[in-house]
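Budget justification aside, the reviewers requested a transparent look at the raw inputs and outputs of the sequence design task funded under Objective 1. We therefore reproduce one unedited record. The lines immediately below are the structure tokens for a 208-residue chain.
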């Protein structure tokens, strides 16, 4: 299972906005984007105006880093979005939002998508009563996401819920209690994405 293993704060600085890759740390003064508003690396002053290709590439890289997917995974989602009916950009973002690790994060069970991915991979999450350990599992409307009825699983999620103050998006609903659970109410739309994304730039780049 491939994943990014480098310093994630550099990714936020490269894109020039918070991607919330470190959970609650991103809401504190320790956030690297607020402390160091320049891109990573040397010689920032020598960099000229970004090219048209650079603008398209940065938009795609921003989405990849935000959802924690690599190039091959992203191309698979894009190909599926192209084959689907409707707007390709909206379908692409909907597929990414429906990933199990993303939904676990948006519900507040994990402070970041990386932590949510770990919760799923380690078997702490069930979908419709069955354990699912595949972070890229695509959820459907009506699916119920629960924390496994195990002391270690419940303690980890309860601690995250107490430490975060994140609003649950409209396409999801969360039921707090001794065993937290969430439900997918509908297919996510473009307005449910929590970062600004110019999907047309991604489509133009990936269609070449």
């Amino acid at each position: 299972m491939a994943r990014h293993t480098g310093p994630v704060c550099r990714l936020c600085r490269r894109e020039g906005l918070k991607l919330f890759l470190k959970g609650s740390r991103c809401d504190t003064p320790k956030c690297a984007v607020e402390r160091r508003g320049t891109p990573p690396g040397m010689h920032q002053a020598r960099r000229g105006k970004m090219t048209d290709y650079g603008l398209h590439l940065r938009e795609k890289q921003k989405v990849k880093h935000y959802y924690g997917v690599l190039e091959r995974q992203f191309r698979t989602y894009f190909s599926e979005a192209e084959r689907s009916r409707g707007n390709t950009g909206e379908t692409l973002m909907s597929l990414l939002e429906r990933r199990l690790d993303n939904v676990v994060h948006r519900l507040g069970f994990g402070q970041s998508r990386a932590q949510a991915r770990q919760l799923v991979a380690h078997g702490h999450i069930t979908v419709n009563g069955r354990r699912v350990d595949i972070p890229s599992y695509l959820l459907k409307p009506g699916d119920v996401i629960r924390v496994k009825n195990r002391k270690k699983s419940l303690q980890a999620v309860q601690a995250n819920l107490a430490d975060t103050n994140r609003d649950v998006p409209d396409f999801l609903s969360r039921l707090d209690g001794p065993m937290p659970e969430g439900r997918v109410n509908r297919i996510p739309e473009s307005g449910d994405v929590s970062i600004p994304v110019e999907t047309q730039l991604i489509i133009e780049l990936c269609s070449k």
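Strands lie at 125-127, 130-131, 144-147, 172-175, 181-184. Residues 8-96+195-206 form a domain with the Ribosomal Protein S4 Delta 41; Chain A, domain 1 fold (CATH 1.10.1050.10). Computational costs for records of this kind are itemized in the attached budget.
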